[in-house]
Design a protein that fits this description.
4-stranded mixed beta sheet, 3-stranded mixed beta sheet, 33% strand
């Protein structure tokens, strides 16, 4: 089990997406994240034996056990351009700020 929050905006986006697509488990995973460093991301995937699985608002999410402690509490939000997976903990390593699903401002180098 892991702490997961889904915002109303994200829930609306999930409902819209899965109204036209087969419902499946979503994986929360660590990706390189470009200029902002490692970031959490969301993708469709079946859970593996070493995964933690949580069901929230009728949707199943999985995460590797070894990512749980590094990520801490996780929230999924949507900004109209896609889903953002946010963590209470920073993964660091980026060149233009904390990881929040994208670079701050309009892009890297705008700071």
């Amino acid at each position: 089990m892991f702490d997961l929050e889904i915002t109303e905006s994200a829930l609306k986006g999930l409902n819209e997406y899965f109204s036209e697509n087969e419902k499946s488990t979503m994986r929360i995973f660590l990706t390189h994240g470009g200029c902002s460093g490692p970031c959490l991301a969301l993708g469709l995937d079946d859970p593996a034996d070493q995964d933690l699985v949580v069901e929230k608002n009728g949707y199943k999410f999985c995460m590797a056990k070894d990512l749980k402690d590094a990520a801490g509490a996780v929230s999924i939000d949507s900004n109209g351009m896609g889903f953002m997976v946010l963590s209470e903990n920073s993964f660091g390593g980026g060149g233009c700020g904390n990881c929040a699903g994208s670079c701050g401002g309009g892009g890297c180098g705008d700071e």
